[in-house]
Amino acid sequence: MDVPPISPLIFYRDPKAALAFLERAFGFETRLLVDDGQGGVIHSESAFEGHVVMVSGPPSGKWASPLDLDGKRTGSVHVQVPAGLDALCGRARAAGARIEREPADQPYGDRVFTCLDPEGHSWSFGQTLQVMSADEMAKTTGRVIQEKL
Amino acid sequence: MAHNTGFQPSVIYQDPRAAMRWLEAAFGFEVAIFIEDAAGRFVHCQMRYGDGLVSVGQEWDEPFKSPLKLGGKNTQLTSLTIDSDVDAHCERARAAGAVIVAEPETQFYGDRSYRCRDPEGHYWSVGQTVEEVTREAAEERMPGLKITGWV
User: Fold this and answer.
1) Concatenated DSSP letters for B70-92?
2) Pair type for strands B6-13 and B52-58
3) pLDDT, tens digit (0-9, with 9 covering 90-100), for B111-124
4) A38: which chain B residues are within 8 Å (Cβ-Cβ)?
5) Contact B118, B12 (CB under 8 A)
6) Å from A13 to nearest chain B CA?
7) What band does A119 get if pLDDT is binned at 50, 70 and 90?
8) I want to staple A132 with a disulfide (CB 3.0 to 4.6 A). Which of A27, A88, A136, B55 is the partner?
């Protein structure tokens, strides 16, 4: 299997519903599903642009859905898309994603929106409008920007 | 911003600067971009590993928490796929203080992988494909599993 170097694994109470949502809302494609035979998903891969996010659940032990943690989460996932960011946001909204930040141009040259999926995992999507150097970003953002420690 | 197409996990820490140093020592991550405000406060960091990027985040908004604040619970895990020796990778992580929760082992689907916990309780899985396994072979090794879409 063609696996990219970094993939998030996300825990859902209802992993099959989550995979269906990711297809409907974001256009991902479920390309691998390992079913435990009891409605749970041991492992799955949802693909987009040749990269994958993995979905598993229902979680137990140290794993949890944000639904189990009063909406809290220990991370999020960012997806960089080649084109069509505003249309993607419309599609996600229509599928039931809760848009937290509407698409907006950022001072670092990207256009970005963020949303929550039905279990409260946070997703952000970005499209590069203008490739900027660290110096240019420092000017537009007023931040100190380093590319090395 | 540093870019690649595809998925970029963000991992939330109480002490993101310590996390940056730790991820460098344990896994060999390199800083792709590190942003501080004019007062020297941490704003944002992306670290690179191979072609992939990970954001090292802070607890910038109420719902975003380190596992330290959630009784060690995690809502996501980050998986790294490497093309070099998993056992050596694991030893480097262990030496940097990673808690190895699953020692390197060759899995039924043909990857050799280990899993560890970082100082704030995030989990990382690191694997290398060491054997090409067909779906039929995988199902034979793990009776009871129903596998769809194995390519």
Assistant:
1) TTT-BSEEEEEE-SS-HHHHHHH
2) parallel
3) 899 999 999 999 99
4) none
5) no
6) 11
7) very high
8) A136
Residues of A in Cβ contact (< 8 Å) with B66? 74
pLDDT in tens, B19-56: 999 999 999 999 999 999 889 899 999 999 988 999 99
A8: Cα separation from own chain's centroid: 9
A72 closest CB neighbour out of B3, B63, B129: B63
| C-alpha span between A92 and B109 (Å, rounded) | 33
| Residue A40, pLDDT score | 94
pTM for the full predicted model: 0.91
Best residue in B4, B5, B7 for a mutation probing chain A (most A CBs within 10 Å): B7
Contacts of A125 in chain B (CB under 8 A): none
Residue B11 structure tokens? 């991992």
pLDDT tens track for A46-86: 999 888 999 999 999 999 999 999 999 999 999 999 999 99
A67 φ/ψ sector (left φ>0, alpha ψ -120 to 50, else beta): alpha
> How many angstroms separate the Cα of A46 from the Cα of each of A21, A85, A135, B40?
11, 19, 36, 39
Tell me if chain A has a CB within 8 Å of the CB of B146.
yes
Chain B residue with Cα closest to A58: B75
Q: Which of residues 23-42 of B touch A (CB under 8 A)?
A: 24, 31-38, 40
Residue of chain A nearest B5, judged by CA positions: A80
Residue A1's pLDDT band (cuts 50, 70, 90): very low
Contacts of B79 in chain A (CB under 8 A): 6-9, 54
